[in-house]
Amino acid sequence: MLTVNLCGKTLKNPVICASGTFGYGSEYADMLDLSKLGGISSKGLTLVPKYGNEGQRLAETASGIINSIGLQNPGVEHFIAHELPDMLKMDTCILANLGGAGIEDYEKGAELLDATDVHMIELNISCPNVKAGGIAYGVKSESAKEVVSRVRKCTTKPLIVKLSPQAENLVDMALTCQDAGADGLSLVNTFTAMAIDLEKRKPIFNNVYAGLSGPAIKPIALRMVHQVCKAVQVPVVGLGGIASGRDALEFIMAGATAIQVGTANFIKPDITMDIITQMQQWCDKNGVKSLDEIRGIV
What we know:
Radius of gyration: 18 Å
Number of helices: 9
Strand order of the largest sheet: 3-4-7-8-9-10-15-16
CATH topology: TIM Barrel
Structural class: alpha/beta
């Protein structure tokens, strides 16, 4: 059985589609059975609508992609009125990924989401593509403590805090968020990266730096998840370059309760179905009846 308990909710399996790579789920409905997923994390939301970054937004690398989307989204209220109702019909766990340019935005967004039937809030304090907010809270533990503790007071929903690999001390950051009221943690978000256009002799992205994801970051992400899982008492959702069932199981063995799949969705839109099947096949072959048997075994 691949079922897992994440922050009090039973998921059919530990495979969640990561924020920013799966839209609001409906975009993939013709390519896979959404009800077979463990969960879907929404496109990153902010209190007010955002157009996102100007210029080129994606660049392919040798083993992943660099993105500079800039949290383009229709705003929390639009999401609640138009996207969330359809997501709640998908028969899977729905996480609302919430960002903000300031603490007040986080608070108001959390209050609005708290009044809905969304299952969990994934608090994004780590997006490296927005000049204001986001990264500022994800780097220093004291800043994270303030935003998490204040958002915690605004919602009774399970609160999962998404951590940045750019944190000054990731384990300290994780412990700080746990103590501030996080019910769970997800990590890692993208790594700050850069690409240069040789012919134009300038950076590819208008913001110069952007976020690297994909298989290139998996070994580092796995190490970070392992370190955090050894330190905290709340469940951890691991992500970073997962593209197969074996990848996912490595994160489970490192201590993760669930995992998220991001960049791989762009390579093969139904890859999550492969990952779920591969995980089950490995468990059957190795006599593993519950993921609890191997979680944190490393």
